[in-house]
Request: fold
Amino acid sequence: MKRLTLSLLAATAALAVAPVAAQAAPWMSINQRQANLDQRIDQGVRSGELTRQEAYRLRAEFRDLNRLERHYRRSGGHLDYRERADLDRRFDRLSAQVRVEKHDYQRR
Reply:
């Protein structure tokens, strides 16, 4: 059920991102980035580009980022500039890891 909800959220976010991508906007919300990364990991698993171990490791890092965001938001309900920059940097790093793992020619 949770997986279905996440998949629906990712699909909704992808549809919401399409107009933004067409405008070439450089900024993407944290929720959009989370949905995008989750969708990329799912797609990598379905296509076989990610092994089970790679997907497990990437999902663990993804969960850690979600926990960190919740921790940041507990301190006032919103993200300040420093927290947003930290999350952006960490999402950039995870996104790069997903890209590397998907194109390292390891198959299931």
In short: The helical segments are 2-22, 30-47, 52-74, 81-102.
